[in-house]
Design goal:
31% of the residues lie in helices and 28% in strands. With 249 residues, the protein is of the alpha+beta class. The strands form two sheets. Strands 5-4-1-3-2-6 form a six-stranded antiparallel β-sheet, sandwiched between helices. Strands 7, 8, 9, 10, 11 and 12 form a six-stranded mixed β-sheet that branches.
Length: 249
C-alpha cells in the first residue's frame, strides 16, 4: 500500500524545522520496519502576515510503501511527531492512501501557495475524503500545511526532494565529478535535465555541488544541470541554488 505522509511543524527559531523532522521520521519508519520511504519532498507555502511560520513556511511529504496496516503507521507517526515537535509549535500530520487523494485535495495544495486558508476548511476536506488529518500541538494550524503537502506531492509537479532512498542517498554522495549514468544508478535521480535545450548523455560528467536538490516534476526526481564551457574535467554542473529555489518554490 502506497501512503503519503504530510507534516507541518511551524517550529521555533531554535529548532531544526520540518525538513529535519521529516528525514528523522523517515529513518525511524524504516528502522521499525513499518514501511519503505521512497523520498521526501519539500513544498513552499504562502508567506503572509496572517500565517504563522518561523522562516520560510514550508511543509514536507514522505512517499511510503507500508509494510503493515495504515493504522500502525498512523499511530507511530503520531507518537513520533508529538515527541519531536518543537516547543510552542503547531504540528500537523496527514496520512492518506495515494489513490484516495482527490482533485480537491490537490487543489487545496495549490491554493496553499497563494491563499490564506482556514483550519476548519482543512478538517472538513479531510473528513469528506476519509483521510487522517490531525493537529497535534498548539492551535492546530499545522494541518493546513500537512494537507497541502500530500496534495502537492500527489500533483507531482511542485517542490524539491530533500531526501531520496537509494543505494547512495544524494546527501551522502561525495561532492565532485560523477557521470550521469552513476548518478541515475546510485542516487535515486530519475532524470538529469539541462536548463537549456541541449544534448546530454549517460557518459557525460556532472560536477555535483553541496546543494544538489532534484525537483519534483511529472512525479520524477529531476536534477537540473548547466552546461560548462571550455572545461576538460566535466561537461555539466548543478544548477545554482538560486535557480532551483526559484523554480521549486
Amino acid at each position: 500500500m502506497r501512503l503519503l505522509i504530510g507534516i507541518d511543524d511551524t517550529d521555533n527559531k531554535e529548532s531544526r524545522g520540518t525538513g529535519y523532522n521529516s528525514r528523522q521520521l523517515a529513518t525511524a519508519i524504516e528502522q521499525e520496519k513499518l514501511g519503505r520511504v521512497h523520498g521526501i519532498t519539500r513544498h513552499q507555502l504562502f508567506v503572509h502576515p496572517n500565517i504563522p511560520y518561523t522562516s520560510q513556511n514550508s511543509s514536507a511529504c514522505l512517499d511510503v510503501t507500508a509494510e503493515g496496516i495504515a493504522k500502525d503507521l498512523i499511530h507511530f507517526c503520531r507518537s513520533y511527531m508529538l515527541q519531536a515537535g518543537a516547543e510552542g509549535s503547531d504540528v500537523g500530520l496527514c496520512i492518506a492512501e495515494s489513490d484516495r487523494i482527490s482533485k480537491d485535495i490537490i487543489r487545496w495544495g495549490e491554493d496553499a501557495k497563494s491563499v490564506v486558508l482556514k483550519v476548519d476548511d482543512a478538517s472538513k476536506l479531510a473528513r469528506s475524503n476519509h483521510i487522517y488529518l490531525e493537529g497535534l500541538t498548539g492551535t492546530y494550524v499545522g494541518i493546513i500545511g500537512a494537507l497541502a503537502a500530500i496534495g502537492l506531492r500527489s500533483g507531482g509537479n511542485d517542490g524539491r526532494f530533500i531526501w531520496l532512498n537509494s543505494e547512495k542517498n544524494l546527501r551522502d554522495i561525495e561532492q565532485g565529478i560523477h557521470t550521469v549514468q552513476d548518478l541515475m544508478k546510485f542516487s535515486g535521480i530519475d532524470v538529469v535535465q539541462p536548463t537549456e535545450n541541449e544534448d546530454i548523455n549517460l557518459k557525460h560528467r556532472v560536477n555535483l555541488n553541496e546543494w544538489a536538490r532534484p525537483l519534483l516534476q511529472q512525479n520524477k526526481a529531476v536534477l537540473l544541470v548547466e552546461k560548462t564551457i571550455n572545461n576538460t574535467h566535466y561537461e555539466w554542473k548543478c544548477a545554482t541554488k538560486e535557480l532551483v529555489k526559484r523554480i521549486s518554490n
